[in-house]
Amino acid sequence: MLAHKSRWCCEWCAWKYLRRVRRLIHRGWREGMRYIVLTAPGGGLDVDEWNRGSRARVKAFMRLLRAETGLRCSYFLTWELQKRGALHANLLVAMPFFSEKRLKALAVRSGWGRRASIDQADKKHVRYVSKMGPGGLVGYVTKDVSERHLLGHAYSYSRDWLVVAERERSPGRPGCWRFSSSDVDVRTAMEAAGYLTPPAWSAQSLPPPDYAGWAESEVSG
């Protein structure tokens, strides 16, 4: 998922933007998160060409990482500029322990430099990933670089980053009822549990099978 920052790039909205980003991070936070940094290779690097393909290289890296671990590896990504103007990626990834040697091999295969790192994520990494740059952007990414190479998106996250697993529920005990906005649901649940209800209460406008005797006595009376 891509998150556009056009409404949050003014200096007056910087702190509002920062809080929004940190809320997104905390909504997807899981136990055992990893902090990964992917950097540009050294040597004679065409910075503009490198920045133009950075998003595609992140996608290639995540595909290799998922194939290597066999997991979805939900992630939250922000960008940062090196001194030479090349983009590098800061990621919070939901994944188990992964050796730095294997990480560097995957980074090189996907086009990144060998100076990749992985650490156990904690609060300081959350603050670093969501730090503010010029104009209220996440990281120190200028507006010009963001518009030209990142399609205006200062951060992004995987589709399952915000998905929270439903809490497990214990089976209901007999005689315990959950509130419902529908009378039909309540009547049907009572009859299914074996409780006798007057004919007028029945969801089908008919009494339960073992309710006939009581109904006849009521009529005769």
Protein model, in words:
With 221 residues, this protein is α+β, with helices and mostly antiparallel strands. It folds into two domains: 2-157, Alpha-Beta Plaits (2-Layer Sandwich), CATH 3.30.70; 173-208, no CATH class. Helices cover 36% and strands 15% of the residues. The protein contains eight helices and six strands. The protein has helices at residues 14-27, 47-52, 54-69, 100-109, 123-129, 143-149, 183-192, 212-220, and strands at 2-4, 33-38, 75-81, 87-94, 117-120, 153-157. Strands 1-6-3-4-2-5 form a six-stranded antiparallel β-sheet, sandwiched between helices. Strand 3 and strand 4 (87-94) form a beta hairpin. It is globular and about 85 Å long.
Strand order of the largest sheet: 1-6-3-4-2-5
CATH topological fold name of the largest domain: Alpha-Beta Plaits
Q: Rough shape?
A: globular
Radius of gyration: 28 Å
User: What structural category do the secondary elements indicate?
Assistant: alpha+beta
The biggest sheet, with number of strands, parallel, antiparallel or mixed sense and barrel status, is: 6 strands, antiparallel
Summarize the entry for a quick read.
This protein has helices at 14-27, 47-52, 54-69, 100-109, 123-129, 143-149, 183-192, 212-220; strands at residues 2-4, 33-38, 75-81, 87-94, 117-120, 153-157. It is an alpha+beta fold and 221 residues long.
Secondary structure blueprint with pairings:
Elements: E1 2-4, H1 14-27, E2 33-38, H2 47-52, H3 54-69, E3 75-81, E4 87-94, H4 100-109, E5 117-120, H5 123-129, H6 143-149, E6 153-157, H7 183-192, H8 212-220
Antiparallel strand pairs: 1-6, 2-4, 2-5, 3-4, 3-6
